[in-house]
Specification:
Blueprint (H helix, E strand, L loop, with lengths): L1 E5 L6 H15 L3 E6 L13 E5 L13 H16 L3 E5 L4 H13 L7 E5 L2 H4 L8 H10 L2 E4 L2 H10 L6 E3 L27 E6 L8 H14 L2 E6 L5 H11 L5 E5 L4 H6 L3 E4 L8 H8 L4 E4 L4 H4 L6 E4 L4 H12 L2 H16 L3 H22 L1
The protein binds ligand GMT.
C-alpha cells in the first residue's frame, strides 16, 4: 500500500511512533511518504520505500501567524496526486487531522477518494485539544476521519468523555523494536558516566510542565542521600533551566548530568539502573516502554495510560501524582538490593515484550484495510 504519514518531526513521542511505524511498514513492503516540515529525527537514510516531502511555509509579513495547515493540506494534495498515495495516516490531531480533512475535500473534487486515519497521542486530547479555542475543530476532525486510533485505553476513555465523538476508536498501543534494545553489558559505556558502585537513574522527556521535572530532581535527591548515584537528564524544554537551578539549590549539581536531546537513547538506557517518569498526565509513556525494553525498571505515576504500560511491583512501581516520598521509597526499594534490582530489570524486559513491534504494527495494517474498504464502499 502507498501510505502518507503526517507527524511532528521532533523528539516527541508521537513523531517517534509515526517514524518507527513508517519504517516498519516500509520493511513489510509498503511505500511510505512522510509529509512534514523537517526530516523526522528518527528517520535515517531514505530508500525506495521511504520518502520524505518537506512542507514549506513561505514567510509573508502580512501574516502574524504563518498558515502551516494551509501549506500542509496543499502539500498532501500534491503528493497524493504525484505518488498515488492511497491512504493518509495523521499522528496528533492538531492541526494534522484538520489539514488532512481539507486535503481530502480538495481531492474529492478531482474524483480522488483518500481515506484518513487519525491517531490520537495524548496532549492533542488531554491538554491542547480540549481547550475551548480548539475543541470544535478537534471534534470535527476526529468525526471526519475514516478511522481513529488511540495509544491507550485510558486515552480512548478520555476522548469519549470530553469530545462528542461519533467515530469508533480502536486502541492500538505504542510499540517497541525489541531487537534494537538487545545489548550485552559490554556494549554499555557505563564507565563514561559513573563509578561501578554508583547507581544510574535516568529521565527522558521534552521537559514540559506536564513531566513534573522538579519531582524528578526531588526523587533523585532522596535516592542519593541513601546510596551513591548519578542522574542522567535527557531532553530539552522549558523546564530545564528551573531543573538546573533546583539541582544547584539542593547541592547535587555534580551528580546530575544534563545531556540534551539525544539520538542515542538506547545507549543511555543500556547503562541505566532506573527510569523516573513522575508525569502529571501521560497517555502512554513511550519513554517508559523504551526504558523497559532495555531492562530498566520504571518509577512512574499512576496517571493516564501508565498503568497499562508499567506493572505495579513487577516492572517498577506507580504512585499518585506528586507523591515524591512514595516514589523515592519505591526507587530505593528497587535499587538497594542488587538481586532485587536484577529481578526488576528482567521483569521490565518481559513486560516490554507485550508491546513488540511485530505484534502491534499488523493492528495498524488492519485499520488501514478497514478504512480503505469503507471509503471504497461509500464513494
Ligand atoms: O509529552 C510527550 O512526551 C510528547 C507527546 C507527543 O505528542 O509527542 O507524547 C504523547 O504521545 C506519546 C506517543 O504516543 C505518548 O507516549 C505520551 O504519553 C504522550 N504524552 C502525554 O500524554 C503527556
Amino acid at each position: 500500500m502507498r501510505v502518507g504519514i503526517v507527524c511532528y518531526p521532533t523528539f516527541g513521542g508521537s513523531g517517534v511512533v509515526a517514524t518507527e511505524l513508517g519504517l516498519e511498514l516500509s520493511k513489510k513492503g509498503h511505500e511510505i511518504h512522510f509529509i512534514t516540515y523537517n526530516l523526522p529525527v528518527r528517520l535515517g537514510l531514505l530508500n525506495k520505500n521511504v520518502h520524505f516531502h518537506e512542507v514549506h511555509v513561505p514567510e509573508y509579513p502580512l501574516f502574524h501567524y504563518q498558515p502551516y495547515e494551509l501549506a500542509l493540506s496543499s502539500k498532501i494534495v500534491d503528493m497524493v496526486k504525484l505518488h498515488g498515495i492511497e491512504l493518509l495516516h495523521v499522528h496528533y490531531a492538531i492541526p494534522h487531522a484538520y489539514a488532512a480533512y481539507m486535503a481530502k475535500q480538495m481531492l474529492k473534487e478531482e474524483g480522488i477518494h483518500l481515506p484518513i486515519v487519525t491517531t490520537l497521542h495524548g496532549t492533542d486530547i488531554t491538554l491542547v485539544g480540549s481547550h475551548p479555542f480548539y475543541k470544535p475543530a478537534v471534534t470535527f476532525s476526529i468525526n471526519k476521519s475514516d478511522a481513529v486510533t488511540s495509544v491507550s485505553r485510558d486515552l480512548k476513555a478520555h476522548t469519549l468523555r470530553i469530545f462528542n465523538t461519533k467515530n469508533e476508536i480502536d486502541v492500538i498501543p505504542n510499540f517497541i523494536d525489541l531487537e534494537r534494545h538487545k545489548h550485552g553489558f559490554t556494549d554499555c559505556q557505563r564507565v563514561l558516566m559513573a563509578e561501578d558502585h554508583e547507581r544510574i537513574i535516568t529521565h527522558i522527556s521534552n521537559f514540559r510542565e506536564v513531566k513534573q521535572i522538579p519531582d524528578v530532581i526531588k526523587i533523585f535527591n532522596n535516592i542519593q542521600k541513601v546510596m551513591p548515584a548519578k542522574l542522567m537528564m535527557v531532553g530539552e524544554g522549558p523546564e530545564k533551566e528551573k531543573a538546573e537551578n533546583l539541582c544547584d539549590k539542593l547541592g547535587i549539581s555534580e551528580q546530575v548530568v544534563f545531556l540534551g536531546n539525544s539520538n542515542e537513547i538506547d545507549k543511555i538506557l543500556c547503562f541505566s539502573d532506573l527510569f523516573l517518569l513522575p508525569s502529571r498526565s501521560e497517555s502512554f509513556g513511550l519513554a517508559a516502554l523504551e526504558a523497559m525494553a532495555s531492562g530498566v525498571p520504571v518509577i512512574s505515576t499512576n496517571t493516564g495510560g501508565l498503568p497499562e504500560v508499567n506493572k505495579q511491583g513487577f516492572s517498577g512501581f506507580l504512585s499518585d501524582v506528586n507523591d515524591v516520598e512514595d516514589m523515592s521509597e519505591n526507587a530505593i526499594k528497587i535499587l538497594s538490593d542488587l538481586n532485587n534490582l536484577e529481578k526488576f530489570k528482567q521483569n521490565a524486559k518481559k513486560q516490554a515484550q507485550q508491546f513488540d513491534i511485530h505484534k502491534i504494527v499488523p493492528m495498524y495494517e488492519r485499520v488501514y484495510k478497514k478504512a480503505l474498504d469503507y471509503v471504497t464502499a461509500i464513494k
